[in-house]
């Protein structure tokens, strides 16, 4: 299964947001990959549990990414990406 989502984090998938997403992806029962979407085409996917892989995408605020994996895992990770993960939790 695949899902597309826009990056809500104000700094994109940089340090803190990438670490939080990688941790959540690593906790999933099945592997999840993520790819940056450019001109409606998904690029090469990386392991969503890899912080360095996530940062290598260069995904910025408002850009679209495509997640691939199990439906339940995607639901959780999409919900994370729809938040500004760069802000400290309230």
UniProtKB/TrEMBL annotation:
Gene3D superfamilies: HPr-like. It comes from Saccharopolyspora elongata. The lineage of its organism: Bacteria, Bacillati, Actinomycetota, Actinomycetes, Pseudonocardiales. Keywords: Cytoplasm, Phosphotransferase system, Signal. This is Phosphocarrier protein HPr. Residues 1-88 form the HPr domain. Coiled coil: none annotated. PROSITE patterns: PTS_HPR_DOM (PS51350), PTS_HPR_HIS (PS00369). It is found in: Cytoplasm. Residues 1-24 form the signal peptide.
């Amino acid at each position: 299964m695949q899902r597309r989502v826009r990056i809500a984090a104000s700094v994109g998938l940089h340090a803190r947001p990438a670490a939080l997403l990688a941790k959540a992806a690593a906790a999933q029962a099945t592997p999840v990959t993520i790819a940056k979407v450019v001109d409606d085409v998904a690029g090469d996917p990386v392991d969503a549990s890899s912080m360095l892989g996530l940062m290598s995408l260069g995904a910025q605020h408002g850009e679209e990414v495509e997640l691939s994996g199990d439906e339940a895992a995607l639901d959780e990770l999409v919900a994370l990406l729809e938040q500004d993960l760069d802000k400290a939790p309230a």
